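Summary for the funding panel

The consortium committed to producing paired sequence-structure records for every protein in the target list. Below we show the first two records in order, beginning with the earlier of the two.
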Amino acid sequence: MKVRIVPSAHADLRSIFNYISRDSPVHARRTITRIVEIIDDMSHHPQAGRVVPEYGDPNLRERRFKSYRIIYRIRGDIAEVISIFHTSRLLR
């Protein structure tokens, strides 16, 4: 399966990096690296994420890393990452 990251999710990654790097650039790089690894894994295991409870749509799923939610939609043979955000925020 192919994985696509929409532009707004790329912006989410930049924002996460910028926020964490204020305190620790090393930790920011590690966090982003791990999130990207999870996203890459979606190509092999797209159904591994749980269904997003706010919507109940079996094609809208999420994976988590620490306090971050990685929301993606399965469309045919594409897993499309649509949002990455801290769990202290509400799903938009």
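The next record, for a separate protein in the list, is shown here:
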Amino acid sequence: MGVDIVIKNGKLVTHNETNEVAIAVDNGRIVALGEAAFLPEANRIIDAGGKYILPGLVDPHVHLGIQEPLVEDIKDTVAAVFGGVTTIGNFLPSGAMFDSFDEWQEVWRQNSMVDFFFHGRVTSSEASVREISARARRQGISSFKFHLAAKGAEYQARGLEGPDDGLLWAGFREIGALGYPARAQVHAENKEIIDRLTPPIMAQGRQDLAAWDEARPAFGETLAVEKAISFARLSGAPLYVCHVTNKESVAVIAKAKAEGLPVVGETCIHYLTVNKLAPLGPLGKIEPPLREEIHSEALWQGLREGSIECVGTDHCSYRRAVKQDLWQGRPGVPGLEFLLVLMLSEGVNKGRITLEKLVEVCCYNNAKVFGIYPKKGTIEVGSDADLVIVDLDKKGKLSAKTAHHRSDFCI
């Protein structure tokens, strides 16, 4: 009997090498690798024409279902498919209890066009800390996010208020006791500094992204990263620093890794490719903010050197209507469809990273960190056949008109 598919004449890319290897696929799994002549007969043959074959990307940082009903927001997984992203890590709504998890998961199963896993959140509630171990056992959730700057009435109204240091410590200890792949995630910013700096800048009436950066400065992020690393060191909890934006934070993470601490730094595609001088106004509002170009180059260097190990999108499906004002509008931008294209265009084709490094930081590392490797993130016998054929010579232009996400803008 033959197999479903054989892909031949392709250059297979993993996190450490590129080889001309044919791939046999049956029932959605990779069943053989080798010379095409020695692979089983296939019902369908795909000739890759000498192009590169990558594992499907794993976007570890996605927010679907935070504004619109999930059944609507989840339509953005179409954009993931068009962008070569085949698995996403989506954040659960804040405070979602056990009785709503099954419903949430079923909506995903019925409607998502890609595979998925979930991240939990830890809020200012004692109950959310106590739930960590139970969620890990009963729901299979292994990563839990602490929003260090989510404090005050604005976040209370959205059900997103983050923990104080006492609950942060308790949560880290719970995670440290669970073992792999349990991991603490942090949104690293300092709210007290933000609250001090924001009012006078707002009073100037500014709507430019440089004002947003000044109100939420890079040094406040770095201070929060240092605190999270200290808590990780003392508690034994592996740490994942979400959306790193600046060179000082990269250096702090690199130092912690050199000391042997299990700290993973993540950045997002917008911090690598767009800076605060872009004439986007409120459309470019993101937390943490876009920074100066010097920080983007430091992030690329961090990827090359290994201090930054993962790249995601922090994708939100917001529309222009909720981003009309810099200070009151929603923070977040779409990105699912652009991750691979921009990592190829701005990373590989400009000589900042190799194709192998792209696979490492967008596939392999993301899968290993969140416990889904080798099912995902690689091209091996037994792995899911999530495959992307890439033409490095193809040219195009990104825009909201050509994208498949529900947002009506693109930065």
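Regarding this second record: The mean pLDDT is 95. The two ends are 49 Å apart (CA to CA).
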